[in-house]
Write a structure and sequence with these properties.
By secondary structure, the protein is α/β, with parallel strands linked by helices. It has 13 helices and 15 strands. The chain folds into two domains: about 1-145 and about 290-360, Rossmann fold; about 150-280, Rossmann fold (3-Layer(aba) Sandwich). A seven-stranded mixed beta sheet has the order 7-6-8-9-10-14-15, with helices on both faces. The longest helix has 20 residues, at about 35-55. It is globular and about 60 Å long. The protein starts with a helix and ends in an 11-residue tail after the last helix.
Length: about 400
């Protein structure tokens, strides 16, 4: 009788252990980019809570979100990864720490998975846009939920092609993999679209450490550039805009995600000069996006914060859909279910390309501009500046070829 009771307890414990599927969030929650990490965390939390409120996955299994601070460090992120694994996480949500950190996480996860069959972990990347992650360095355990650098720059190049007033371009970027790639693809793709454009200078600066961009802007000004291709984000973008405003320098900026990061619109409004054009799957105030509008309203009601990034909120939903498709919480089966999975998202149908694990989602080129009641109807961040749609492209229009040769388990 005692043995039967013990066995029943063991079975109950096993069943209870499967009542949750643990996801670890690893992104900056301290330091100069903490506001970016908090934004991404809130988007992730909202989706997880909504999925759980609707029954979770597999008819009752709830998602549990663990939180870890990457401190924008590859070493700290790998320590967080090990802590997450020790706590039972089977998927990592990351991307806001930069491509070098995400690459280190992917490599660490792959090593762990090779050494620990049956205890694998997935890496779901919502914001690090290094094309190598779905190219030469592609990995079965990694999934990219954001358009990569080449896709975003192609959208910008298509737009610049129709802007004859852009004549001289300077490349100013953060000194790490992403910054160098934004410069590389800017020179290559904008150069192809506009062979007449002159690239008049290029510089790299330490990420998150420059307090005053005036010396960099002095070099830009001496080059007589009218436009700046910059992959800066977070405080590095805000401080760059401030320095340009203080110097009275009326530049055009071409960026990947600046408008979706808190403080950027405010910085543009305070500078009163310059046009910041960026590209994302959606922007606030975009016309004819009823699904996103409804989500943004519900998000604001629950969190008290502005909704900015559908792809981040979408990432846990893809995971949930794959778990239900696979009818399993085994990461190997989930990964296979994610391949070529199409989700009817708030920005329309999006597909996770199976050959390289690159999500194909639309991209909208838009500019932060003053409210005019026509193209820009709503102000943002308490300012009279909002977002003007300039051009829109489907994921298939921007899709790039891939050098991925993926080894599968």
């Amino acid at each position: 009788m005692k043995a039967l009771f013990t066995a029943a307890l063991l079975c109950a414990g096993s069943a209870f252990a499967q009542d949750t599927f643990k996801i670890a969030y690893i992104d900056p929650l301290s330091g100069p980019f903490a506001n970016v990490g908090e934004l991404m965390l809130t988007h992730t939390q909202y989706a997880v809570e909504d999925i759980n409120a609707k029954g979770g996955v597999l008819k009752g299994t709830k998602l549990q979100l663990l939180q870890f601070d990457s401190k924008l460090s590859a070493q700290e992120s790998q320590s967080a990864l090990q802590a997450a694994i020790d706590q039972g996480a089977r998927a990592i949500v990351t991307g806001g720490s930069g491509s070098s950190v995400v690459t280190a996480l992917v490599q660490a996860a792959a090593r762990h998975n090779q050494r620990n069959p049956g205890k694998e972990i997935l890496v779901l990347n919502h914001s690090s846009i290094d094309p190598e992650l779905t190219g030469k360095a592609c990995n079965f355990w990694h999934f990219q939920f954001e358009a990569n650098t080449a896709m975003k720059m192609k959208a910008i190049a298509n737009y610049v092609k129709k802007q004859p007033d852009i004549k001289k371009v300077y490349l100013l970027n953060q000194d790490y993999a992403h910054g160098k790639q934004w410069a590389h693809y800017g020179r290559e793709l904008v150069g192809l679209a506009r062979p007449d454009v002159q690239f008049v200078g290029e510089a790299l600066h330490p990420i998150g450490r420059v307090k005053d961009f005036a010396p960099y802007l002095a070099k830009v000004k001496s080059s007589e550039a009218d436009s700046l291709i910059t992959g800066n984000w977070g405080q590095d973008m805000v401080l760059l805009l401030k320095a340009a405003g203080d110097a009275g320098y009326n530049l055009r900026y071409f960026n990947h995600s600046a408008g979706s990061i808190p403080g950027t619109v405010l910085a543009v409004s305070q500078a009163k000069l310059g046009q910041l054009t960026w590209v994302a799957e959606w922007h606030p105030g975009q016309a004819e996006t009823p699904k996103v509008d409804a989500l943004a309203k519900a998000y604001k009601a629950r969190t008290g914060k502005d909704f900015l990034a559908p792809r981040i909120e979408m990432t846990p939903r893809f995971l949930a859909a794959a778990i239900n498709k696979a009818q399993s919480t085994d990461p190997v089966k989930i990964a296979r279910a994610l391949e070529d999975l199409t989700l009817d998202s708030v920005v329309g149908p999006v597909r996770m390309r199976g050959e390289d694990h690159q999500l194909l989602l639309p991209q909208v080129v838009n500019t932060i501009a003053p409210v005019d009641g026509k193209l820009v109807k709503t102000g943002w961040e308490g300012t009279n500046y909002g977002f003007r749609t300039d051009a829109a492209y489907t994921g298939n229009e921007l899709a790039q070829g891939t050098e991925c040769k993926m080894a599968r388990p």
